[in-house]
Amino acid sequence: MKMKQKRKNKSIWTLTLGISLVLMAFIACSSDDGDTTETETGGEVSGELHAAFAEFDTNETDIYLEGSNVVIETTGNPNHTTPYWGVGNALYVAPTIATNMTPSLIPGYDGAATLTVSSDPQLASSSTATSLGAIGISVSGAAIFNDQEGNGALDQAVVSLDYSGGHIGPAEYHYHLEPKAWSDDDDKLIGILSDGFFIYGRKCNSTGTYPTDLDASGGHASITQHTDETEYHYHIINEIYSTTGRYIVFVGPYKGTPNAIN
Ligand SMILES: [Zn+2]
Ligand SMILES: [Zn+2]
């Protein structure tokens, strides 16, 4: 009696499954016959790298889409001259304003890192403070740091920064100040921060001059040289750092959600 009941249940279940499969097949065929669905349209949009990524040095970085994310792999090395390459290296230049260099050299460090961000980053409901270590990857391949060194202000380390606002110590080569190797009081792309938003030089391409509507993070929404659509991006804030006569790249806080750079 019990066995019979079980068998009966099983055959009902089999019948139900059969009808479901037929229905699913029917629905699948119907949508195939239809026009482009929303999902397909969305896939096309996220299937293209943002034009700004073309500015990144392809010798130092490898940038590609992975689903709805963008993966940025970098050697961590700057593609330009600095005394931190060390005497004898093709990209070595004698220090000019770095009066007290740290003893470390770029060839001695493995600064390779990977950052994965959304291909369509969104502003977060609340801001996030930056922390020590890399907060972004620049178009040169080298890391972007904030205005802190160790757990203190940058003041003591300023004497070790090269002409491009970068140094080593005690991590990979990285910028704290406006990277004059390729951006000096202009609207050039500096790089991408870990929340997926791009950061530009002190001027904005949308007006050709210093933006006047920046938020506390140095960000605003406008067109750029890389998009006709209004989109959020950061700028190097036009505030001289300390007595250096130079400009901090980014202090924060992040307006999006930061991702790990490692
Ligand atoms: Zn530093
Ligand atoms: Zn702008």
TrEMBL record:
Which residues, if any, are the signal sequence? 1-25
- Identify the residues that the record assigns to the YHYH domain, covering every copy: 116-207
Q: What domain of life does the native source organism fall in?
A: Bacteria
Enumerate the Pfam families for this protein. Answer: YHYH
InterPro entries, alphabetized: YHYH_dom
| Keyword annotations from UniProtKB, A to Z | Signal
Q: What is this protein called?
A: YHYH protein
What organism does the UniProt record list as the source? Aquimarina algiphila
